[in-house]
């Protein structure tokens, strides 16, 4: 997952992956009208070591007060800013099967700045239909949509046998960040970021370790 942009960020992938969990705890604290929260409280809720939490939060640039903790609003803003979740990111979904439909319907994305503005499919019976309020377009409309709407992220949920071909189309259209839900390892230029979500690997852990 390394590319030129990530190499400029002073944070590890595990740290970045933990930050949303911290943010969830902090948002709940805000709902309870708490003004300050300590790293120890956050660590306790997530079953982590306090020193790990403090190290992770330090990458956002915020510093807690000894024996007091962090200002809750400031900490929320610091994490959202570090994750770029305080900015709007336009996204498209390619493939409107069960998984693509479920992702379009997930409201948590919009809360964190990602706005799915369109979906694409090669099946004629899906073209022109809406999932929630997201219209499905034919694949030949993809390049112009990416350019005209300045799309940031493509979410790929197509069959694996079509994944590389669709990826080539996305790269040629100017997409530089792909969220890959297929089981194919995509071949992309070095300046294109691909994050693969392997659902079968997660299920394997659940089925063996339950």
Automatic annotation (TrEMBL):
UniProtKB keywords: Cytoplasm, DNA-binding, NAD, Repressor, Transcription, Transcription regulation
The keyword NAD appears for this protein: yes
Q: Which residues bind DNA?
A: 21-60
List ligand-binding residues for NAD(+). 95-100
Taking every annotated instance into account, which residue ranges of this chain make up the domain CoA-binding? 84-185
Name the domain of life: Bacteria
Q: Which family does it belong to?
A: Belongs to the transcriptional regulatory Rex family.
* UniProt-recorded name of the protein: Redox-sensing transcriptional repressor Rex
Species classification: Bacteria, Pseudomonadati, Spirochaetota, Spirochaetia, Spirochaetales
């Amino acid at each position: 997952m390394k590319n030129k942009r990530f190499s400029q960020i002073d944070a590890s992938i595990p740290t970045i992956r933990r930050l949303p969990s911290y943010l969830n705890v902090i948002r709940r604290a805000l709902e309870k009208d708490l003004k300050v929260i300590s790293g120890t409280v956050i660590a306790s809720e997530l079953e982590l070591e306090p020193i790990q939490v403090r190290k992770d939060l330090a990458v956002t640039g915020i510093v807690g007060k000894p024996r007091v903790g962090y200002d809750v609003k400031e900490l929320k803003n610091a994490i959202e800013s570090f994750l770029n979740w305080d900015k709007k990111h336009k996204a498209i979904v390619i493939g409107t099967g069960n998984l693509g439909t479920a992702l379009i319907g997930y409201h948590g994305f919009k809360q964190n700045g990602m706005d799915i503005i369109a979906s694409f499919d090669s099946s004629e019976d899906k073209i022109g239909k809406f999932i929630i309020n997201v219209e499905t377009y034919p694949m030949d409309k993809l390049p112009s949509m990416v350019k005209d709407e300045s799309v940031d992220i493509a979410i790929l949920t197509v069959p694996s046998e079509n994944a590389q071909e669709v990826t080539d189309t996305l790269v040629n259209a100017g997409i530089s960040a792909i969220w890959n839900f297929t089981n194919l390892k995509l071949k992309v230029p070095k300046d294109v970021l691909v994050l693969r979500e392997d659902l079968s690997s997660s299920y394997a852990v659940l089925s063996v370790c339950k």
